[in-house]
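Sequence in, structure out. First:
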Amino acid sequence: MIPASFDYHRPASLDEALKLLKKHGDDAKVLSGGMSLLPMLKLRLASFSHLVDIGRIPGLDAIKEEKGVVRIGAMARQAALERSEVVRAKLPILADALPLIADPLVRNRGTIGGNVANGDPGNDQPAIMIALGATFVARGSKERSIAAGEFYQGLYQTALAPGEILTEIRIPVPPAKSGGAYVKLKRKTGDFAVAASAVQLTLGKNGAIDRCVIALTNAGQTPVEAKEAGKFLAGKAPDEPTLREAAQIAAKASSPSADRRGSVEYKKEMARVLTGRALKIAVERAQRG
């Protein structure tokens, strides 16, 4: 199909982009990589009179570590993140996910900002951002920070206010004895997850789990943080029975919908299995760290 007609804007600065959004209001939509937005426009599942392409604005694609924080510009391409030494060294959980996102063509165009700001619970990186305790930086009339755990409010609904643009993601570098993992099940290359689990944990001096965050992809209307499972693990030794029970608790937090990828029961069972695998990998990485 062909999308409805729209005016295309390519601002040269963030201030210019914000002025365009303010001028056109609800009729305008930010375009970053376009890997989610353009298919929706072609299928006429969405329609906007103005697209504001922020792809040429300088300074929005940096990937760097500063003072214990990994700072990722919203326009950083998935392929650039996949090649990043900073991501591989500091954020193994994110490095796990990147080769699993769609296919190379999409990763060459798609951006992390578009992935996390779209509000699609099937996207991989929202759950990872929650697990990592990331903060999203938004610019509108002023700059503000939003915790990833408070960002997702419903299906395709986020805490971004009208006229705001996500500009940067800030992720604290995990401390020593930390480990993370992202495990995903999908039917074929390029497909969304049937289910996926993001785990980030830290071990204490005695080898017990000091802190653990588990977040699930495609498990509800938003990415789902399995808070009860994280609470259950705190202070416990990461032995097999404990991790197995935590995975069962995490799966109970999921509320997937049945579709061609599987039934509700199948998806919940896969959430359990994948969380168990992610926990085991995360513990092994933390013990080596």
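Second:
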Amino acid sequence: MNEKVSRYNIEVEYKDNFLLFNTLTNKLLPVNYRDYAVVETLLENLPVFQDMYPNLYEAFKKSGFIVAADFDELAYIKLQNKKSIFMNKDYHLTINPTLDCNLRCWYCSVSYAGTKHNKERMSDEVINSLNEHIKDLVIQEKAHSILLDWLYGITIASDIMKLNIVK
């Protein structure tokens, strides 16, 4: 037997049960108090678990509570993270059409750029460039969808509009 208990299992008491949850697979298993003591003991001795309850053991494996001994769960998480970052074809664009804001928040990126808060608006040249940029994203099929955030004035929350590209 070359298997181990996943390091991403968590257990939480809930009412008259324990909830076993594997954070890697997002699988949830409710277990009553009486059975929990047995399950906890079996997870400490996988060969006995497999011999006594082969069907339950397979269910635990299928749900990710038990994994192959050579399976590097952390490397798997890192790979999934890289895939979500580098293979994502959604495009996120934040547009700030005016600097007419008087809040002067400490985290504001405008201050870092040395820009003064004033009543100027985005120039027609910048607007045209944005239009061309978005059109290029659509025509060249560089994005499956475009998420636009519009930030303006002293509005704290942004308006969010998602455009799904129809091919």
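Remark: Residues 3-74 form one domain.
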